[in-house]
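hey
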């Protein structure tokens, strides 16, 4: 007889883990117990024959419930205690201070086959779920994850479900908190845009039918409302675009299964692994040339955002439509949060959707679909929401205090930090809209309460930018709770988030390739090389892209103005005007020649701020090459530039950027790229030039990082983060330089490199009290 105590951490609560342990313990004739203990831990005691114990351990790893993740399994040999049976002990006796809140899981294959089986009592039941799958975070009011703490509380289990719930041999439904059936579960119905019920024997079937007829249907899903529409029909897609006031930003396509996906995009083993994981995120994948999707779904892009149905409801809708793939885009008014209830839906979406497919289960927490793309052949998170929130990030050290971090301003998320953990909120959005800011407050409070952080004792961390809306929320916390506020530089937070998410815990160099962030000198930073000395609590701006003039916000929306501004700075107004006329650049702004002349005047009079932004340089090039001349969504010109460069070649004449030293900093000269673009425009294709601009920028930043590393004791891994850190070609440029010199790169994976991940870095910077210094 031997005995073992196991302490297992990871996603082990709310996934049917204890019944699973019970089953395999009984199978191998082991005695003892399993119980939830504090944190996200499960404690297991097993005693029995040596061979049985090792079989148990093996099965623990290889037969675990699909959504369970074993982060750590600690095994302690013990003296056998002579247990008579194997027990599932109640967790109620323990005060669960830090119970992990499970994320939402997509419907599992077992539940799916039940709803497709005419003989099953859950046949065509849209809300089927079990211990291995279904909503979690989106329907939880408070931790821990027990039915009475969720919006399933109001549905009383029928006798059949009760039997399953109490049956210890029912692996998927024993003690499964969210289960239901057609007898006792949520109800579904269809209405017109005024909320009048549309009589239908099967509302799902009816919804599918009207989608096929070209109507737009708002569908209440798991974490919010979607707008569902035919993706194959130009007219329908354009109708959706005009009603949603969204001229070009890509829509995601949900496809029934692998076979349907295969018609739309190129798949491989890695992308399928992500697409079919329990989180079922949207994945950006290369479009097939003969895709049946309308070209208006993702205009100008070589990628399509695709995902698989993650609830029974979505699956059943897709199954009944003729294409078996549909646009499924967030149901929100422009700039507003996605609707999670009927009040919002009928108010904000009645001008967009023709019909509404609604159910009576409350969505407690809004959670948008997550978005992932591949960069350097690895998945990178672009938007972290459903399926990943609120998983925590473990730090390699204990935080000194408790923190509430407010992120940045656009496409952002907040976070809380305590002990050795940081928990990011779901993707929140652009907090310059008051409703979105209120949402940020709501979810920060939810996480604070869940993890026992009182706002009066927390340190509140914000971005250094004096005009960010998140600062207003921080000020209100300060006034109400008297908490202290710490400011953190934007790009420092970016590189720290990436480094710590990937487990780097030494002095390092980070490259931030970004749109805009407030710099320590008051300029707008965005192409930065930072030396970060964790050991000395300091960081240094070792290099950056050359400062360029940025006269106004209008230039961000019409990026040819940036291009012309640089020409004017380098060549003077007269020459800049001549070049603009020669290449037809004046037609790329609404005000034509008059507007360009006014711009040149402003530059002459030095009416501008300075920026080292990578995004602006990319946008300007995209406009000059006439790939994208007007920005309708964040990052559009740069994203289209990357797409247009697919398959492009390096133009040798523009092969290298000059790097000069100035005041202890390395300056990567960007004006030269623009001048070379003009010079080589005639002899080269836009594709090759687009590729070259991005690659050369990457090389320039890589060279600056390399020089900064020379002779210093810094990590051999260079961290890359920021909104443009997903740009494959820039990353390739950086990597080529570093790899040639025996170094490698680190890209974030679980946390977005953009402002959706910045709150993690804010907490680390605040805790380590990192201060800037210059040589
Ligand atoms: Zn299931
Ligand atoms: Zn039932």
């Amino acid at each position: 007889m031997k005995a073992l105590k196991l302490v297992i951490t990871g996603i082990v609560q709310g996934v049917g883990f204890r019944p699973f342990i019970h089953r395999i313990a009984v199978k191998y004739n082991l005695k003892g117990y399993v119980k939830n203990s504090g944190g996200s831990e499960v404690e297991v005691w097993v005693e029995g024959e040596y061979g049985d114990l090792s079989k148990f351990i093996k099965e623990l790893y290889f037969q675990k419930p699909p959504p369970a993740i074993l982060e750590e399994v600690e095994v302690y040999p013990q003296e056998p205690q002579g247990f008579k049976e194997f027990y599932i002990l109640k967790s109620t006796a323990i005060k669960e201070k830090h119970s992990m809140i499970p994320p939402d899981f997509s419907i599992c294959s077992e539940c799916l086959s039940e709803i497709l089986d005419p003989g099953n009592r859950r046949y065509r039941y849209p809300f089927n779920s079990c211990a291995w799958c279904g909503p979690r975070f989106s329907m939880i009011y408070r931790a821990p994850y027990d039915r009475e703490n969720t919006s399933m509380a109001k549905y009383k289990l029928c006798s059949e479900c009760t039997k399953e719930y109490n049956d210890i041999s029912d692996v998927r439904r024993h003690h499964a908190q969210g289960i239901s059936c057609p007898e006792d579960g949520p109800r579904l119905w269809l209405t017109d845009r005024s909320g009048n019920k549309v009589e239908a024997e099967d509302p799902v079937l009816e919804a599918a039918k009207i989608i096929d007829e070209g109507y737009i249907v708002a569908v209440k899903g798991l974490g919010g409302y979607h707008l569902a529409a035919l993706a194959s029909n130009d007219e329908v897609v354009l109708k959706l675009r005009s009603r949603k006031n969204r001229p070009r930003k890509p829509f995601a396509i949900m496809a029934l299964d692998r076979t349907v996906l295969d018609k739309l995009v190129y798949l491989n083993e890695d992308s399928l692994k992500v697409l079919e994981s329990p989180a079922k995120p949207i994945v950006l994948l290369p479009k097939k040339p003969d895709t049946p999707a309308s070209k208006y779904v993702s205009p100008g892009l070589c990628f399509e955002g695709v995902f698989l149905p993650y609830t029974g409801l979505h699956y059943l809708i897709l199954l009944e439509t003729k294409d078996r793939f549909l646009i499924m885009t967030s149901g929100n008014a422009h700039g507003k949060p996605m609707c999670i209830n009927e009040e919002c839906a009928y108010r904000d979406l009645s001008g967009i959707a023709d019909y509404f497919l609604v159910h009576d289960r409350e969505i407690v927490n809004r959670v948008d679909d997550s978005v992932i793309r591949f960069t350097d052949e690895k998945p990178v998170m672009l938007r972290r929401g459903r399926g990943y929130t609120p998983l925590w990030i473990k730090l390699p050290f204990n935080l000194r205090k408790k923190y509430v971090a407010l992120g940045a301003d656009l496409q952002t998320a907040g976070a809380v930090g305590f002990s050795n953990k940081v928990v990011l909120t779901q993707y929140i959005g652009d907090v310059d809209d008051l409703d979105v800011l209120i949402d940020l407050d709501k979810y920060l409070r939810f996480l604070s309460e869940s993890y026992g952080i009182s706002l009066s004792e927390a340190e509140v961390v914000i971005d250094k930018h004096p005009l960010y809306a998140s600062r207003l929320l921080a000020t209100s916390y300060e006034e109400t709770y008297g908490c202290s506020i710490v400011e953190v530089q934007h790009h420092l937070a970016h590189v720290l988030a990436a480094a710590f998410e990937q487990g780097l815990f030494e002095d390092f160099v980070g490259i931030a390739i970004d749109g805009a962030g407030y710099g320590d000198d008051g300029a707008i930073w965005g192409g930065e090389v930072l030396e970060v000395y964790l050991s000395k609590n300091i960081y240094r701006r070792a290099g950056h892209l050359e400062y360029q003039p940025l006269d106004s916000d209008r230039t961000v929306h019409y990026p040819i103005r940036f291009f012309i501004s640089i020409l004017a700075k380098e060549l003077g107004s007269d020459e800049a005007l001549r070049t603009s006329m020669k290449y037809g650049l004046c037609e790329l702004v609404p005000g034509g020649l008059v507007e360009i002349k006014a711009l040149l005047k402003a530059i002459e009079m030095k009416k501008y701020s300075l920026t080292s932004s990578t995004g602006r340089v990319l946008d300007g090039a995209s406009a000059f090459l006439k790939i994208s001349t007007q920005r309708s969504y964040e990052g559009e010109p740069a994203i289209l530039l990357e797409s247009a460069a697919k398959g492009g070649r390096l133009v040798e004449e523009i092969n290298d950027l000059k790097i000069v030293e100035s005041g202890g900093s390395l300056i990567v000269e960007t004006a030269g790229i623009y001048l070379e673009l003009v010079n080589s425009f005639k002899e080269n294709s836009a594709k090759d030039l687009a590729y070259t601009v991005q690659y050369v920028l990457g090389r320039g930043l890589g060279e600056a990082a390399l020089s900064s590393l020379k002779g210093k004791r810094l990590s051999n891994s260079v961290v890359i983060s920021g909104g443009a850190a997903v740009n494959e070609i820039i990353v390739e440029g950086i990597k080529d330089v570093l790899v040639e010199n025996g170094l490698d790169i680190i890209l974030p994976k679980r946390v977005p490199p953009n402002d959706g991940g910045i709150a993690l870095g804010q907490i680390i910077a605040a805790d380590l009290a990192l201060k800037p210094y210059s040589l």
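The mean pLDDT is 95. The two ends are 66 Å apart (CA to CA).
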